[in-house]
Amino acid sequence: MNGSCVDHVLLTRFNVPTPGPESLIRAQDGWLLQRVALFERFCQPSVAYQDNRNFHWIVYFDPESPSWLLSWLHDWGRDGLFHPILRTKISAEDLRTDLREIISGPTRAALLTTNLDNDDALAVDFVDHLQRAAATIQSSWTQDDNEARRIAMYVPNGLIRQGDLVYRRHDPRNAFCSVLEEWTDPVTCWTDWHNRLHLTMDEGFVGSPAGWLQVIHGTNVSNRVQGSLVSPHGHRTRFPGLLDDLTSPGPAVLARDIAVGRPVRVLREMARGVAKRAVLALAGTEGLTTAKDHLEHWKHRGWHFSVPRPEGSTPRIPRAPEQAPDQTRRGR
Q1: Are 99 and 28 in contact (CB under 8 A)?
Q2: Which terminus in the chain has less CB density within 10 A, N or C?
Q3: Annotated region Disordered: where (predicted)?
Q4: Residue 66: which domain range?
């Protein structure tokens, strides 16, 4: 089975406004310029290299974005790789409307939505592995089944890149989450946090080699280095061009990470988990979100970083807009 029985859509928030201090950070030119660089360096190429091209990609932008970003968006719109949509907020009904319009109405029996952050990347066979698993699951659904036909899907194995180092990570409920469901009343993968989808639906895990690449950099607050330090060489074919600028860590570096680095990371995550559960118990999900926003605001008061690029490569340079981005659809 090749997954052709599902309509598959990747969903990305680029700079959609959010409440709280984080909205001020996302509106800054510095943050936007660096997100554009990360998107061009990691996210966009990984989607373009997918073996299976049977999918759509929606990327949401703030309609109040600066003119240079709208000009950049206009240039990218010509490529046709993704569908840019301008919205100040994305309600569940807005999302369902956008999905139906992009796909021109449900064309297959089921909908598969996948979250992709704008600074992360997919392995070349991510879409294919996911769609094959979705096709198998969907074939098991029976017409007389009264239960809601909906399941959260995850590819647990992936990589984390920070600077010149790569870590192998097993994260069963990671941010590259998907939801497979009938078109009748879809809730999509954005119905809840990626690690809480199992609270309202079944979940399934797709076995594969490293299926995703999470990039740790100076402008994200929620992601941290986890997992085991590995050589990037064995993963380069799965992530074309995204690991070519890295060298393999020597035996001494690998041994030190096994003896010291990884145990420290495990203890740190245990402590963070205890604190996170305490905040959730006392203040709920809104309280935890507020705490993250304040932490991000504090962290970004003086941040600066550069996006690693292979030698000889150059980013697209944003220009002043000559005209409105006609390939961009504005939400009503």
Answers
A1: no
A2: C
A3: 304-332
A4: 6-310
For β-strands 202-205 and 150-154, DSSP reports them as parallel
How many independent structural domains does the chain possess?
1
Confidence of residue 263 (pLDDT cuts 50, 70, 90): low
pTM for the predicted model, two decimal places: 0.80
Rounded to an integer, what distance in angstroms lies between the CA atom of residue 49 and that of residue 51? 6
Domain CATH code at residue 260:
3.90.550
- At residue 317 the predicted structure's pLDDT band, cuts being 50, 70 and 90, is very low
Structural domain includes residue 200:
yes
Q: How far is CA 56 from CA 99, 125, 188, 211, 323, in A?
A: 9, 15, 14, 19, 26
In a domain, 325, yes or no: no
CA angle 311, 316, 318 (to 5 degrees): 140
| The predicted structure's pLDDT at residue 76 | 80
pLDDT at 325 over 80: no
